[in-house]
């Protein structure tokens, strides 16, 4: 490996233009007299036109639509494909803002870092070549496979206090650990920023989380967010920013705050942020960004990097860190939070086997130097009494910088000594890229320090119960193999007949000898000057990449309502973006809309019949079965040019920023989705792709529409004409001919209606450019 000092990094760390941002904010303050939260300061200082009033003194939060200018875009390899295919079709010569691509999701964990990386580079060559050539052409920084996970790299290199950035991944808020607003979006939103189009966000409400007290031994920032997830539930953060304040913020490391911000995504929050702290300054220095730290210090003096004294929050949640204990959340949902001391009892009550089959640590959520030195401390204690882990114990470092520093400081050797396998610096098992040979279709439990635990997420096995905990709890429990083991109180038996109990782990925030950059050939090699002569090759018969055809507008020939739609199905219960567009083996088709659409809703439950991946084609020709898979019926409708609608349950599209979950239904001809409620990012993604999302005014009406019914919009025309107060009703013709009317609500802004009219946001942008 070539080792280079930090200042030799090729990537561009850009100091936010604090003077300009502070000036923008002072313009906004002419219209807004109230004290501002930190989140509002960051949002308003990034307004496209700060001189324009945000409303006539009315409530801004939760109501006004903000037109924003983000400073940076980051994309991971799976979502970047579609983002770039969309950007390419806009026809611009370069990205309007600094942008980066990170190769992390496509690397499969099989048997260890080196071979896994080599194998994945070969099997994904076509995609990595495409991403690299697009990066070169448009002046985007390209982080090669092996460089690390997007959010860790962003924190180490690009994040800066007070900045506003977008990332095509739902855990983009991780960068909030450096006191900024980092927001997870779909590729089409990234295209807004990359084409210089103002990015629209409905002003979120701001929840203040007041931290007092001090974390006790064994308790880490991960436990704070696991606890909060239990309190807020997976919907509690929807349409809201979580802004932490109070003395408890200042005791946490910058990377610890990043973990908390990362998992704000699990409660559906738009993002999370913290006031600028001395620990953030130390992290900026340690990661080679002293100029950013100095500029932030200066900006902080003007009050820009913290809330105004007396600023009001929409809700304040008090958390006394001294009262927190470690938590274990799951299975299958991140908000099922159980304090460690009650977990053994909980396992017993549920009748689960008191064992787990693997412990996994690391990922973008928890692979900081502090996390890794803390787990190494436990491994050292265990080794000194001759213990090794009882279950497979896997570790994914978040970046090459972390991996190399772990290796240099003996952390890796310490973990390997007790049985750990260190995987490539990539997402791996966190996104189902785990070639797990044991427990293929058997009920079992795993413990991870990751952030998400929907069914099948890690190993593709529906029967794997996945629990989330801090890396130290996962590690300590891996020496027992039992779910009921509480490392704070319980002893482990030793071969000598004696008993051993762990001392609380202790780690270091930052490496005393500084970070080691490791293998610098993974890092961006070119300065991000666009090279327009670069050819982007997509082979005609590629199974991985396909150029995008613009979606047609629904409003041909002067039509002002959506065309008549058939209802494809009524989806029952939890339907995350994982249900709508599964990951794992499907990740390889992210750049090929036709191929990936074969997985549309394949794990969703049909409310009419209760089966998974079964739908009905009520117009099936005689002799053909009406029952088919969900993509099967969607394809039949597409072949008949029959637009369709979906009826869905609460919090539809929760989980990730995966825009394929919007692109795929649209590809088959979905024009409208009517939900009990939507998750924010997904609802926006639907709007961007020209699908109309509607909310039932009365949630009970959900069961009134079923598959095969014909639905028409009534009132959309008025809305498109900008008639104030216009509402959309649905005229539903049931299969037996009965006609009913259903009241709905919508969240379409004036701009979003233009996207709908054009067929997609991209069609609209393109029309503006011509
Ligand atoms: Fe990757 Fe999992 Fe994070 S998929 S970006 S490590 S949430």
Automatic annotation (TrEMBL):
Its main location: mitochondrion. Residues 565-698 form the Aconitase A/isopropylmalate dehydratase small subunit swivel domain. It is found in: Mitochondrion. The keyword Aminoacyl-tRNA synthetase does not apply. Its cofactor is [4Fe-4S] cluster. Its EC number is 4.2.1.-. Residues 40-481 form the Aconitase/3-isopropylmalate dehydratase large subunit alpha/beta/alpha domain. It is an enzyme of class 4 (lyase). GO terms for cellular component: cytosol; mitochondrion. GO terms for molecular function: 4 iron, 4 sulfur cluster binding; aconitate hydratase activity; metal ion binding. One of its GO terms (biological process) is tricarboxylic acid cycle. Keywords: Iron, Iron-sulfur, Lyase, Metal-binding, Mitochondrion, Transit peptide. Coiled coil: none annotated. Binds 1 [4Fe-4S] cluster per subunit. Belongs to the aconitase/IPM isomerase family. NCBIfam families: aconitase_mito, PRK07229.1. This is Aconitate hydratase, mitochondrial. It comes from Mycena alexandri. The lineage of its organism: Eukaryota, Fungi, Dikarya, Basidiomycota, Agaricomycotina.
């Amino acid at each position: 490996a070539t080792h280079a000092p930090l200042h030799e990094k090729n990537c561009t760390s850009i100091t936010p233009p604090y003077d300009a941002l502070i000036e923008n904010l002072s313009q906004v303050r002419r219209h807004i007299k109230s004290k501002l939260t930190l989140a509002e300061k960051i949002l308003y200082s990034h307004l496209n036109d700060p001189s324009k009033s945000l409303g006539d003194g009315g409530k801004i939060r939760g109501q006004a639509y903000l037109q924003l200018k983000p400073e940076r875009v980051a994309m991971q390899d799976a979502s970047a494909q579609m983002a770039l295919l969309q950007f390419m079709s806009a026809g611009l010569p370069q990205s309007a803002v600094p942008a980066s691509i990170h190769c992390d999701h496509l690397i499969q964990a099989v048997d260890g870092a080196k071979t896994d990386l080599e194998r994945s580079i070969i099997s994904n060559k076509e995609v990595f070549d495409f991403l690299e050539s697009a990066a070169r052409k448009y002046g985007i920084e390209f982080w090669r496979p092996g460089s690390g996970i997007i959010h860790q790299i962003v924190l180490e290199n690009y994040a800066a206090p007070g900045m506003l950035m977008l990332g095509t991944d739902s855990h983009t808020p991780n960068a909030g650990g450096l006191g900024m607003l980092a927001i997870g979006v779909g590729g089409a939103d990234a295209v807004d920023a990359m084409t210089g189009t103002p990015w629209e966000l409905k002003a979120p409400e701001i929840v203040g989380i007041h931290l007092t007290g001090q974390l006790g031994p064994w308790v880490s920032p991960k436990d704070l967010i696991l606890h909060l997830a239990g309190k807020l539930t997976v919907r509690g953060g929807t349409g809201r920013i979580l802004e932490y304040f109070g003395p408890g913020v200042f005791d946490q490391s910058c990377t610890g705050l990043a973990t908390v911000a990362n998992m704000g995504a699990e409660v559906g929050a738009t993002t999370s942020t913290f006031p600028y702290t001395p620990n953030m300054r130390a992290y900026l220095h340690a990661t080679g960004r002293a100029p950013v730290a100095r500029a932030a210090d200066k900006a902080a003096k003007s009050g820009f990097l913290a809330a105004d004294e007396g600023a009001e929050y929409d809700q304040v949640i008090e958390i006394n860190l001294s009262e927190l204990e470690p938590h274990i959340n799951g299975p299958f949902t991140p908000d099922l939070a159980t304090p460690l001391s009650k977990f053994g009892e909980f396992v017993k009550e549920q009748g689960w086997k008191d064992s787990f089959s693997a412990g996994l640590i690391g990922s973008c959520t928890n692979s900081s130097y502090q996390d890794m030195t803390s787990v190494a401390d436990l491994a050292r204690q265990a080794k000194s009494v001759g213990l090794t882990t009882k279950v497979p114990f896997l570790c994914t470092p978040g970046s090459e910088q972390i991996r190399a520093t772990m290796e240099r400081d003996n952390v890796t050797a310490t973990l390997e000594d007790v049985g750990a396998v260190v995987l490539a610096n990539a997402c791996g098992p966190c996104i189902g890229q785990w070639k797990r040979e044991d427990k293929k279709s058997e009920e079992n439990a795993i413990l991870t320090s990751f952030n998400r635990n929907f069914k099948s997420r890690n190993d593709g096995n529906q029967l794997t119960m996945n629990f989330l905990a801090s890396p130290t709890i996962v590690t300590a429990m891996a020496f027992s193999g039992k779910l009921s083991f509480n490392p704070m109180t319980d002893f482990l038996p030793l071969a000598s007949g004696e008993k051993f109990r762990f001392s609380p782990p202790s780690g270091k925030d930052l490496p005393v000898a500084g970070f080691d950059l490791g293998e610098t050939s993974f890092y961006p090699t070119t300065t991000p000057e666009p090279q327009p002569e670069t050819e982007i090759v997509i082979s005609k018969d590629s199974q991985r990449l396909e150029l995008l055809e613009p979606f047609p507008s629904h409003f041909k020939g002067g039509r002002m309502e959506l065309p008549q739609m058939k209802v494809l199905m009524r989806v029952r219960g939890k339907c995350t973006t994982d249900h709508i567009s599964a990951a794992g083996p499907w990740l390889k088709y992210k750049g090929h809309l036709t191929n990936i659409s074969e997985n549309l809703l394949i794990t969703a439950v049909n409310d009419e019949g209760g089966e998974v991946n079964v739908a009905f084609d009520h117009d099936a020709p005689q002799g053909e079965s009406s029952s088919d898979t969900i993509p099967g019926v969607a394809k039949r409708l597409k072949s008949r040019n029959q637009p369709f609608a979906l009826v869905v349950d609460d919090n539809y599209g929760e989980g990730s920023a995966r825009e394929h979950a919007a692109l795929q239904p649209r590809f088959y001809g979905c024009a409208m989705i009517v939900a009990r409620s939507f998750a924010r990012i997904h609802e926006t993604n639907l709007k961007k792709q020209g699908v109309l999302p509607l909310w039932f005014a009365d949630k009970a009406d959900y069961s009134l529409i079923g598959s095969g019914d014909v639905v028409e919009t009534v009132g959309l025309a008025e809305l498109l004409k900008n008639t104030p107060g216009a509402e959309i009703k649905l005229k539903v013709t049931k299969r037996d001919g009965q006609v009913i009317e259903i009241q709905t609500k919508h969240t379409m802004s004036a701009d979003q209606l233009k996207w709908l009219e054009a067929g997609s946001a991209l069609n609209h942008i393109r029309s503006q450019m011509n």
